[in-house]
Amino acid sequence: MSAIPVSDFEQPWELPSRGRIGMLSLIIGESAIFTIFVVAYIFYIGRSVSGPTPQQVLDIPILNTICLLSSSVTIWLSERQIERGNMRAFAALWALTMGLGIEFIIGTWLEWKKLIFVDGLTIRTNLFGTTFYSLVGLHATHVVVGLIMLTFVLIFTLTGRLNHAHAERVEVLALYWHFVDAVWVVVFTVVYIVGR
Amino acid sequence: MADQTLPIAGTLGVTPQRSRSSRLLAWLHEWVITVDHKKLGILYISYSLIFLLVAGAEAICIRIQLAMPNNHFLSPEVFNRLFTMHGTTMVFLVGMPILFGFANYLVPLMIGARDMAFPRLNAFSFWLTAFGGLLLYYSFLGGFGLYGMGNAPDVAWFAYAPLTEKAFSPGHSTDYWALALIVSGFGTLGTAINIIATTLSMRCRGMTLLRMPLFVWLMLVVSAMTLVTITPLTAAQAMLVIDRYLGGHFFDTQAGGSAVAWAHFFWIFGHPEVYILVLPAFAIENEIVPVFSRKGIFGYPAMVAASVGIGFVSMGVWAHHMFTIGLTSVGNTFFVLSTMLVGIPTGIKIFNWLATMWGGRIRFASPMLFATAFIFQFLIAGLTGIMLSVAPWDWQLHNSYFLIAHFHYVLVGAIVFNVFAAIYYWYPKATGRMLDEKLAKWHFWLFVLGFHITFDTMHFVGFMGMPRQIYTYLPDRGWGPLNLVISIGGFIQAIAVLIFVYNLVHSYFRGKEAGNDPWDAWTLEWSTPSPPPVYNFATDPVVYSRRPLWDLKHPEDPDWKYES
Amino acid sequence: MKSMTREYGARAIRLSPLLAVLLAARHAWADGPQATPDIFAPASTPAQSIVGLSIFTLAITGAIFVVVGGLLTFAIIRYRERSTDAASEPPQIYGSVQVELAWTVIPILIVVVLFLTTARIIFAIQDAPEPKSALDVTVVGHQFWWEYRYPKLGIVTANELHVPVGKATYLRLLSADVMHSFWVPQLAGKTDVVPNHPNETWIEPQHTGLYVGQCAQFCGVEHAKMLIRVYVDTPEQFAAWVHDQQQPAPSDPEVAAGRRVFETNACTNCHRIAGTPARGTFGPDLTHLASRATLASGAVINNPQNLREWIKDPDHFKEGVLMPAMQLSDLQIDQLVAYLSTLH
Ligand code: HEA
Ligand code: HEA
Ligand code: CUA
Ligand SMILES: [Cu+2]
């Protein structure tokens, strides 16, 4: 080959990390799923042919919301610790994140228990029940899946198999957790503010 | 560039001699556990070809039933199942996987990578898709067991609510349909993520985004579209399953649910879906037309822009499937406009292919024959699409055979034709042997003939007011003679397809040796041996332009001189 | 670009003979109802304006086809490989801004024209104000049959719609179960019949006679036999029909046995016969069954043999229909048929 444009060789050849791209793609796809459920929720507000209505039975889950949103902060702090190789602080913050997530799930469980046994609202009661449990349940499922993955990381950390070198993977996982939190802001607004 | 005389290639081939049956088992085992993108690509393609035969056979049954008025070849129940299965199979088990198969096989080769970004996810996605297909077909046996045709889904491929609710569709056929699509949907999602990550993160040195072959660009756009459109389908299916299993009311019109909501959700997926199917066909066209015209693609940047443009615009046109459902006049008007706008970037593509051929030296080998027929047929199909987008006319044409003609013109006339083109083009790469050119010509001319007899005629029965999805019709409607013609065309297509299948098998054993680069082409995959080794490239390639092999073959006038 | 307008005219001229032939063939028998419900043989206002728009669209798309297809054919013939060609590659051309701009702008202009024309017709048909004199009919789609109610006239009937000629009829479309679609091609485009989502459409037929159509949205097993028959009557015929339909069912003592069979079996759960205890609404109203030309939504001719066969085994004509075979004795069926045949 004659006179190859050498300029090409001088530039560094760097491409984005595939883990990050993969996770971002997954998040985009998941957002589309949530969009459809949210749109369905909004579309069906006030269309139930029988009670109970959201005003009658829904309480605003302030504590839950605070916990879940602050877990985004704690996971971000823990990311900074693993970057510095500070594994103990990382493990502590990571466990705190999980604790906040678990609180959220317990909160949701209590809310549902009240709705089902006190207010008699199930998924088959009316359209509100159908859309409410589907949307909130879909989100809660994502929290649970996130918690399971967080648990693996915690186990690996405690058994010493995770270290500074895995910072990037941990960050990719944290991306997912941030996404789950962000979705909660939307779900919260739609279900507990707009829909009530 | 790859070196064929690498020492490892020979030593790998030595396997201890085993008994016949264990050799077969070992061979099977290898295919099942493989994470090699090329093997997975071939698995995808073979899987889809088998379903093409199955769904084609279903179409033939449909055509026998409709050949005459008041025919009794099929009962209404069986007819309804057959067209539902035909449509669902063709779209989800033939169209999507075959195109992802080509992407799997070719994208890493074309961008100079050794595999996909996530090889295991890749294998997992394939097996999910395969399982989805089996689940769908298991419905023939499930439910009522082996009595007659069991109870396959019979709600049409768009499964409008509330016909799919428990009240109107008892039994489990609709559940099979929904679950099968959810499962294969996740497979598709995995593949899409994989392709995006591969194209963005695995390109070889020098392969900037604007040097990627157009094939790769289109697969990137398709995968991005898949991310945001397969997922709404999954969401809608999940709602349907909630309704059916948990007693929800999303689409239960008695409890305030909405049938129109399902239609929106389905077509928010369904319309982009048809572009997901056609863009890979464009991708194939983009590789074949230049090579056989002996000219670089005309207007590469415009092609990229048009592809991305089609991707975006096609997200906002779905309600053109719902002009008759009772949208407001403003709603209808909006979707007329957005739908017509898609014609503009699509037109750019057609014109660019035309300009690529213009002034070239067109060699009509079998891939190019199919590719040329594609342009004609897609032109017609696009124009009938424009007719359908004229909402008042659509009030007449909707759900008539004119609509069936429109979409078979795209799905068969464009996509299946290009799938054939692609197989003729890349079969030598994948197997090391050429397909028989004489059989290819028979295949081509018979298929063109059958295609036009069938689908041209359908437009006219549509004008005559014949609706779709009817298992029979009265003699005095006057649709009989044309339907007979349509059915005859179907048989001619079947013969052509059988010739093709014979050619695939025959040439695998008897075909001419292909060599590395039988078509004198320009993209990286042709620099590898045929079939390419597991690692694809012995040394990582470096590229300087959009046509690396052109640069190699024409050192006196390389492409990189012209590209900015 | 410059030659665009001139060329456009030329194309339209080149195409017009083809269209003329097409139209002449169609319009030869367009003045009235046909057995083939051809969309190019309109006999009512919305269908006619649709045909106008269709022809316009056909002309434009036809012109595009001729031009692009022509260029393509030319390229294939002119630039195919010949044995006399030099072995070297043809000159490489990578693009041209002017040309690419042209083939972006021209389609945009075409789209604008087509869009504006379409929008006008959409508004003209969909938002047409209902005249005071219009007849109102409520159409209810059921799995595999049609119910027609005339709220102002107090009529309920099934499967055969009667409307007066030269006058607008507004149809309100409701569904009792799943989605259907009301389509009589010679009268108007189709409108879906959606549960929980009332729709409206209108017709204004100009020629009397029987217009056929059928359900155009897949609705289950017998979607194919959910046919539509619209009788466009002269004003006198229509008035007479209305008068007849408003009467309760005649009660003929000679067929009292049949009437007893009807009233003592489950028939009454699903069918209504005005003036008798039968009040069912699941199946068609049978008050004036004998005044209808067909049975079971146009599936078969209404005559005593078919009626008998229908009651004995509805699946025989319409497999999968929602009316059960009632397991009656031959005698009972004879009596029933005799009774039902008197319901004029
Ligand atoms: C791969 C598949 C595919 C593709 C590519 C398309 C492409 C298009 N389709 Fe089609 N379509 C289907 C598959 C496809 N369709 C299917 C499966 C259905 C039915 C589903 C069902 O009900 O079961 C359907 C139904 C369908 C409908 C709904 C009809 C109805 O249900 O009543 C409409 C209405 O607008 C439509 C329009 C279009 C348009 C405008 C395009 C455009 O993209 C076409 C663009 C191309 C061109 C226009 C030609 C080239 C352009 C030029 C030469 C430039 C100059 C042109 C102009 C200025 C106009 N299609
Ligand atoms: C990629 C998509 C695709 C493809 C390729 C086809 C291909 C064909 N289709 Fe299909 N079709 C659809 C997608 C497709 N279709 C969809 C989405 C619907 C709508 C469904 C719905 O309404 O729900 C539909 C509906 C549809 C109908 C309307 C049914 C109705 O509404 O009542 C008809 C009727 O003629 C038809 C015919 C055909 C024919 C003759 C072919 C031919 O081109 C087929 C050619 C291929 C073969 C003939 C195979 C040949 C092989 C053999 C015969 C050998 C068999 C041997 C073994 C199995 C071992 N199709
Ligand atoms: Cu009613 Cu189809
Ligand atoms: Cu569409």
Quick structural gist:
The complex is a heterotrimer of chains A (196), B (564) and C (344). With 196 residues, chain A is an all-alpha fold. Chain A has helices at residues 7-10, 18-44, 54-57, 62-84, 87-118, 127-158, 167-194.
Features of the shown structure:
heterotrimer, A: 196 residues, mainly alpha, Four Helix Bundle (Hemerythrin (Met), subunit A), 7 helices, 77% helix, 0% strand, B: 564 residues, Cytochrome C Oxidase, Chain A, 16 helices, 66% helix, binds heme-A, binds dinuclear copper ion, binds copper (II) ion
Structure description:
The complex is a heterotrimer of chains A (196), B (564) and C (344). Chain A has 196 residues and is mostly helical. Chain A has a single domain (18-45, 68-194), classed as Up-down Bundle (Four Helix Bundle (Hemerythrin (Met), subunit A)). Helix content of chain A is 77%, strand content 0%. Chain A contains seven helices and no strands. In chain A, helix 2 (18-44) runs parallel beside helix 7. Chain B is mainly α and 564 residues long. The radius of gyration of chain B is 24 Å and the shape is globular. By secondary structure, chain C is an alpha+beta fold. In chain C, helix 5 (256-264) crosses helix 8. Chains B and C meet through helix 4, helix 8, helix 9, helix 10 and helix 11 of B and helix 2, helix 3 and strand 9 of C. The complex binds heme-A (2 copies), dinuclear copper ion and copper (II) ion. Residues 271, 274, 320-321 of chain B line the site of copper (II) ion.
Distance between the termini of chain C: 69 Å
Structural class of chain C: alpha+beta
**Can you tell me the CATH architecture of the largest domain in chain C?**
Sandwich
CATH superfamily of chain B: Cytochrome c oxidase-like, subunit I domain
Helix content of chain B: 55-70%
Q: Termini of chain B, distance in Å?
A: 24 Å
Number of strands of chain C: 12
List the helices and strands and how they pair.
The complex is a heterotrimer of chains A (196), B (564) and C (344).
Chain A: H1 7-10, H2 18-44, H3 54-57, H4 62-84, H5 87-118, H6 127-158, H7 167-194
Helix pairs in contact in A: 2-6, 2-7, 4-5, 4-7, 5-6, 6-7
Chain B: H1 7-12, H2 20-33, H3 37-66, H4 76-110, H5 119-138, H6 173-201, H7 214-246, H8 259-293, H9 300-313, H10 329-357, H11 366-389, H12 391-397, H13 401-431, H14 437-463, H15 480-510, H16 548-553
Chain C: H1 4-27, H2 45-78, H3 97-126, E1 135-142, E2 145-150, E3 155-158, E4 160-164, E5 169-175, E6 180-182, E7 191-193, E8 199-203, E9 209-214, E10 227-233, H4 235-246, H5 256-264, H6 267-270, E11 294-295, E12 300-301, H7 304-312, H8 330-340
Parallel strand pairs in C: 1-5, 4-10
Antiparallel strand pairs in C: 1-2, 2-3, 5-8, 6-7, 9-10, 11-12
Helix pairs in contact in C: 1-2, 2-3, 5-8, 7-8
Bound molecules: heme-A (2 copies), dinuclear copper ion and copper (II) ion (CU).
